[in-house]
Amino acid sequence: MPSLIAESPCNAACHRNDFTRRAVRCQYSNHRRKRHWEKPDRAGDPCPFAASIACDDHRKYGGLSETLFESELFGHVKGAFTDAKTDRAGRFELADESTLFMDEIANIPLAQQAKLLRVIETGDFERVGSSKTLHANVRIISATNSNLEHEVTAGRFRQDLLFRLNTIQITLPPLRERRDDIMLLANSFLAQHAEHYRKQIAGFDETARERLLQHRFPGNVRELDHIVERAVLMTQDRQICGSDLGLANDGREPRNLEEMSLEEVGGIPHQKSAGPKRRQRA
Question: Structurally, how many domains does the chain consist of?
């Protein structure tokens, strides 16, 4: 489905569990090949999205949160509010004729939901402090770990906005239910962190691969990312081995028998009890 979405200008919503890192799938959905609905200068753009915004950022701004959050979306003109010293383009303006990724979409304030609905339907918006109407043609990929239907019922999310955003819905199961993705993601994270820390690492050895595939990843993709980053820092070899991962089954932390296979149990050396010492005869 992501490959089909990538070729379409329709909006899509990603629903996932905590820490699934929906952006990984969303970036794949938006891989940077030329699409018939994009401007020619967008083709081949190495950035996965023309613009992105975390919709829970408005919580950081205190009493002026909605004004500043609206500025992030639509931009502002000089003097629109305190510290607005120059004109500034917003995310929709930057993403014109391309894709805007909106994370934590359920956290948008109700007042901003109405303005977001307008720009999705008509493409029209105004910068904060300006009466001049601008236009942008933007495809939105949104993500949330909230149940938007429940948010609509509770009155915290507009139903008409949900319909506009949810043209195609992608449900991301936790990583433990996507075992085939583990090594694909692990190799990707390995390449990123090896480049960042300037280390030459060829890959994972067989033990490391087995331990990654056996791990349940309660922290989902974010946990996998952190495990690989730590392994890149810890390893002294050209390949990451099982002990570099720091998982519970690498011998550093004991495992319960209930969590072990018959083969693993059979490999535990059996120690005979010495029994009570016999009393020596005088």
Answer: 2
